Amino acid sequence: MNNACAYCGAANAETADHVIPNSLYPPSKSNSKIQRRKVPACRPCNHSWSDDEPHFRTVLTFAGEPNQAVRELWNGKVNRSLRDIDGRRRFSDVWAQMQPIDTPEGERHKIYPASDVRLLRVMRKVVRGLHYHHELWSPVPDEMVYVDILRFGIPKEFVDAMATYHRGSDIFRYQFEVFDQFEDIPMSSAWLLTFFENRKFIALVWKPTFFAQLSPAEINRFSGVRDLAQLEQSNS
Q1: Backbone angles phi, psi at 141, to 5 degrees
Q2: Phi and psi dihedrals of 196, rounded to 5?
Q3: Residue 225 burial (CB count, 10 A)
Q4: Count of C-beta atoms within a 10 Å radius of residue 190
Q5: How far is CA 234 from CA 3, 60, 120, 224, 228, in A?
Q6: For residues 198 and 62, what is the distance between their CA atoms, to the nearest angstrom?
Q7: Helices vs. strands in the chain: H and E counts, helices first
Q8: Across the chain, what does the average pLDDT equal?
Q9: Calpha distance 65→198 (Å, rounded)
Q10: CA dist., res. 123 & res. 129, Å (int)
C-alpha cells in the first residue's frame, strides 16, 4: 500500500475517507471498538460524494424494515438533516425516488434504490474502497463497478465458502470472491453487501481486459441504472 488516492490513484492523498459512510452509524455506536474502514483519498474524490452520502443514508433507511440502528438514525441524524437549512431539498430528493404502487390497503409509495443514481454512486464508492482495503488491484474506475439490489438467491454453498466481514453487523456486512485467476470469467470480483441487516445488494467489478472490449452501449448496460419499468418487472 502507498499513500495514493484509493479512488483515482493521485499521489500523496491529503485526506482519509471512511469507506462505509460515517453517517450510517447512530450515536450509540460512538464507543464501539469496531474499527471503521479508512482509505487514503485526495480532496477532490473525498469531497465529490459529501452531498450524496446523507442522501444515501436517508434512502437506505426508507428501503426496508427498520432495525434498531435505523430507528435511532430516524430519530436523530435523518430527522435533523431534513430540518436543516437544506432539509427541503433533501426531502425533495428522496420524495423524487418514491413511486406509487397499488396495494390491497390502497395506494402506497415505494422507493427503488436501484433507480437512484446518487445511491448507486456511493455504493460503487464503497466497493472501490473495499477493493483497495483488501489489497486487490486499484484504483478501480467508477464505471467498472456494477451495483444492483440482490434479485435472486445465491447458492448456499457459494455463500458459505466466502468469508464474512462486518463493520458492525447491524450496520454493514459484506462478502466477496475474486476471479482474476479464471480467464473465462469477465468479473474481477463479486461482492454481497448488506446494510441494516436486510438491504441486500450485489456488486461486480469487471476485469480491465474485459471492460476494454465493450462498446459504449454495452458499458451502459453493465454499469447503467435500470429504468422504472425494468425494476417493476423484475420485482413482480
Answers
A1: -65, 145
A2: 50, 35
A3: 18
A4: 19
A5: 42, 20, 18, 16, 10
A6: 12
A7: 10, 9
A8: 86
A9: 7
A10: 10
Residue found by looking up cell 445488494 in the block: 201
Nearest Cα to Cα of residue 119 among 229, 199, 222? 199
Place of cell 463497478: 145
Quick one: CA torsion of 134, 58, 81, 45, rounded to 10 degrees?
Answer: 30
Residue 202's DSSP bridge partners are 148, 192
pLDDT tens digits along 196-213: 999 999 999 999 888 888
The tens digit of pLDDT for each residue in 140-174 reads 999 899 999 998 888 888 888 888 998 788 999 99
Answer yes or no: pTM beyond 0.90: no
Q: Give the separation between CA 230 and CA 220, rounded to whole angstroms.
A: 15
For 26, residues 6+ apart whose C-beta sits below 8 A from its C-beta are 69, 72, 73, 76, 77
Helices (H), the chain: 43-48, 52-62, 68-73, 79-83, 87-95, 117-133, 156-160, 208-211, 216-223, 228-235
Domain ranges of the chain: 115-235
Q: How far is CA 137 from CA 129, 130, 189, 219, 220, in A?
A: 11, 11, 10, 20, 23
DSSP class of 154: P
Rounded Cα gap, residues 231 and 63, in angstroms: 14
Q: Which grid cell sits at 103?
A: 396495494
Determine the Cα–Cα distance for residues 99 and 135; give it in Å rounded to an integer: 40
Output DSSP code: residue 86. T
